[in-house]
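Help!! Second protein's tokens look totally different from the first
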Amino acid sequence: MFLDDYHSRTDSRLCITAEQASRFAKRVAGDFNPIHNPDARRFCVPGDLLFALVLARFGLSQHMTFRFLSMVGAEVPLAFDEDDDGRIRVRDDSGKCYLEVERSGDITRDEAVVEAFTRCYVAFSGKNFPHYLKPLMEDRGVMFNPKRPLVIYDSMGFSLERLDGIEPGLELADASLDVVGKRGDALLEFRIMAGGEEVGTGSKKLVVSGLCDYDACTMDAVVEEFYRLKAAHDAEA
């Protein structure tokens, strides 16, 4: 399974080290958010890795909604369970819930289909910054604190018309940023395409904290650093 390098299993628990989480963020998602660096003070496991592990274990459903309730730290033993109410929950041994998933419709466990959809979504999702967020912040005249950029995954959901043998691609359909004080709620809406036709739709919500006035020079430096890190990673790969 393509996720084997990004987690380990002990009995009924999954565990993700900081190094595994960081490798997934960079290699699979193309995500260089510093919060996923192993030495980050507020390190957290990428939400997209939890998303991928849920699909790998429970399959891909036609309609799914993911709510990220708390950030997962390094090496936290996690239980992935389907509860009596039909919802999938990811918890630690103390019962703290990090992710809650609702699903309905048909389900496929075809590994090729599940992996193709996972890779497709995660590659899209990893482009939060600078591809989607920078234009939104610039348009609204705000930006995150460059010294402590904090962009948190809040939720995502999608609906598929069919599951049979699709090789999907995701396209951004619309994007918006609602600013309230120092907090911004970004909504990214997307189309799911296959063979040139639309086979589904979805959306993703992000929370951007610590907003301040937009500064073009400062933002340009942040973007430049993003591409420097990406180039350095690509050179090592």
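Here's the second one for comparison:
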Amino acid sequence: MSFLKAEWNNLAMINYEVNPEILQKYVPAGTEIDFWNGKCYVSFIGFLFENVRVLGMKIPFHSDFEEVNLRFYVRRFENGTCKRGAVFISEIVPKYAISFVANTFYNEHYRTLPMKHTLKVNENSREFIYQWKVNNNWNTIQVATQKNPIAIEPDSEAEFITEHYFGYTKINENETFEYQVTHPRWQQYEVTKNESVIDFESVYGKEFAFIKDLKPTSVFLAIGSKITIEDKRKIKL
């Protein structure tokens, strides 16, 4: 039985190229930074985590919620296979119990903050807004898209960002948690406008304040799907 079954829906992804040196201290043991065309990426992602079931059970008042996370990309070679995964620097949710379980049992980096979202379907477009409150100020991921879905092209940047099927969490310098994420290949809505406003320093600290001066390399909206998260395993070097 899968540890968790859910849906990840309407994933607004804002992607930046950064110097890989700033991420080295976050790289879990046994993995290395995964590059696309020589570029190292971090992504800010806002989405809906819906219909959550843990070990087959629906948890009252914790089955549907927003999440915003900051992540980067790694790979691990094992028995001749390349496993491509994501590492989460920060994950924000509106439910304390979610943060407690993830931080206690998965060594993740969840924070609980006030959150809200708005989804609009217009005649020829869609609008996706995710907001979270820090120091009495609302931060916003806000994108407008075309109304109809399109494919995520093979060998594209969007494919690189979305097609990572493992999660890796640093325990210490010699141990790592690994878990597998399963989902079908996603489609996307083409983004026509990005009006996101994020106070990077107040949300992520001085270390990531520099991102306010960067232009995103891309912004897109992955439609998402049902997903599963398989139980974790510990890797020891």
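Reply: Different proteins will give different token patterns, so don't panic. The longest helix spans residues 96-106.
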